[in-house]
Amino acid sequence: MSNDPQSIDAALDRLVAAYDAAGLPPIRPAGDVGAVLAEIRAEIAPLVLPADLERFWQRVDPASITVAPYPRPTDAAFALRTWKTHRDESPGMTPRLLFPVAYESWGFLFVELEDGRGSGGPVFDWAYAGSPFTICFPTLAAYVDLLATMIELDEFVRHELETHSYVEFDPDGRWKDALNVRLSDAQPLLHFGYARELDEGVRSWPEHWLLADGLTPETRRLRGATSTIADLLRRAAAGDAPVATVRALVTSLAGSGAGSRVAIDDGTGVLDVWCPAAVCAYGPSIRSEFEFDVVVRPAPDPVPDWSPEHREAQSAALAHDLARAQAAAMELYAKAFRTTAAAEATAIRPIP
């Protein structure tokens, strides 16, 4: 399958005609998407939108593709907002090379962007709450073409209820088998070969995904500890602002979109560390060991004890006392994110 926009045009023409022939609500032409596409190009640079993804949004209104498999196509503005949220608030959750084209009830379809090294085109599905990145199609055009085929073959059923009617797509569950046949015919794919699933953990990402996120071999290379936590705390208590690399276990963690507040323990002491979202591609994660580059504040305040609020929130939740649980959660949030940590991480590297 080519990533030539003519391929997506032919597939979209088939899909529009199939909807019309089946008497389904028509697929509407796209509105004015020039501004949002220009914003996407600027935001993702030096990465580039594949031609078929850009053409898809130039041709049709995704909201009008109402008879389709889960998850259904989404518009370019929502896709950009989601991509930026993943990049800025949850680095390491999804690679920058994957750009949304469909979203519904926690599930995504992504199209791989072009990075100048031969990427661009394959379509992946993934969902929040932990799932692999699954290769579905070699290109977006292949997805649209199969959808057109399914509509032409009447792989849908109309349901008429007393209060409303709706159209169910693929009632006999044939979409997945057809998808697998088309993917097999297109494999091997550049960078992925015959693979179907990739573990979502950033440590398992292919090299070109890591590079697009700025995770070069140099940034991933372990430096080795240059100090102990005990020594850093001693120097900070004396008024210094020491900078060092420590190797430590994460013993507690509270996270937000801005970053994570963690306690780390290297066996000599425990350090309270703020980890901005920008350095959190590889973690931190609870009960895992990492190498942290840290800057410690001189004469830091004592670490706030949020264990009472944590216990209160858990107790209230078990008692189904929502108001009490929310109050405890707000107190916990205030202690975790409205007080200043003893140190700040400037880089985090995983221990193999």
Q: How are strands sequenced across the largest beta sheet?
A: 1-2-3-4-7
Give the integer mean of the pLDDT values.
93
Q: What is the element string, with H for helices and E for strands?
A: HHHHEEEEHEEHEHHHEEEEHHE
Total count of helical runs of at least 4 residues: 11
| Overall 3D form | elongated
Distance between the termini: 38 Å
Helix content: 25-40%
Unreliable residue runs: none
How many strands in all?
A: 12
Strand content: 15-25%
CA-atom Rg in angstroms: 25 Å
Q: What can you tell me about this protein's structure?
A:
This protein has eleven helices and twelve strands. The longest helix is centred in the first third of the chain and has 18 residues. It is elongated, with a radius of gyration of 25 Å. It is about 35% helix and about 20% strand. A hairpin with a 5-residue loop joins β3 and β4. The strands form three sheets. A five-stranded antiparallel sheet has the order 1-2-3-4-7. It has a five-stranded mixed beta barrel with strand order 8-9-10-12-11. It has a two-stranded antiparallel sheet with strand order 5-6. α1 runs parallel beside α5. The protein has about 350 residues and is α+β, with helices and mostly antiparallel strands.
